[in-house]
Please model this.
Amino acid sequence: MTHSSDDLDYWLLLQQIPGIGPINFARLLDEYGQPRSVFYQSAAQLKSVGLKTATVEAVLNPDWGSIDADRRWRDHDLHHIITINDDDYPRLLRESAAAPPILYILGSKEVLNQPQLAMVGSRNPTPVGNQTALEFARHLAAAGLTITSGMAIGIDGACHRGALDAGGSTIAVTGTGLDRIYPARHQQLAYEIVETGAIVSEFPIGTPPRAENFPRRNRIISALSLGTLVVEAALRSGSLITARHALEQGREVFAIPSSIHNPLGRGCHHLIRQGAQLVETANDIISTLLPQCEIAPQESQVTDKYNNYQQTGSEDYQLILQEMGYSPTTVNNLVERSGLTAEEVSSMMLILELQGAVATSPGGCYIRVK
Model:
């Protein structure tokens, strides 16, 4: 089903009415069939379906100028506005509670109905967490899953980048109007996402970044997807909100465990204790989702890109990496464990950091990067 521009204008107008959120919008559709009909009802009829007095007054005296920005924005080949009644509307999202009545799409409409995996995590990840997100996204995108995330800094950005590196598609769900890219540092990333995927929002053109909108958009990230993978997250984080939405929507939830010393691992450990599937490789996810969609199992796992370096490095370097394990470690600890001098260990850590095999972490520690 498609709408004429006049019909779509009534959808946009109803959305702009104060007090009309997804739940009230759905109630009005059930009662009157089409948004156009809502504007021909009496005050008494509108109040009878639960609308407050101020909302009723706004419906009876609509501000047509409020949708001018939306009208101008949609006049572009890559700009789309679809409603919950359109054939292009994502099937999984439509089936979820409080599905947004309108979606704004920058890029491909078709990608929204491809098999998707949501990947979320901390905005301030450890180097290991960032690399893990990148590697998992690469493998999962190569297997045929579209990677869906929120385009925030940190884990979200790494997930989008990993999917693009694999030549796959990725979807970014934002908490602003699509006339702006937020955060601004992701301008180039957004451009690349749109080339093969899409940026999506439920918010009208001109909506600025508001703190309350970002948790709200998380329900869309999870509802679009067959499952949600949490890479690194604190106990109180938006990533756990996304995971909770996924559980409420009947989706799979996956979590990658971390060091017990990593505070950003606690959210994942909490999810695992609550029943989320513990994930060590991309195939753990693929084998679970395979019955639900056409994706290909891969022989390759998330690999240690430094294996070749470790095999060809000196015995001392291999000893240092072995003694580090995967928890934050100080130079003093490594001196005690290896028997090498502080000068030798410090020099080796510098070389390993330049090689990308280790990274610095808070507290003057080093951490091994997978």
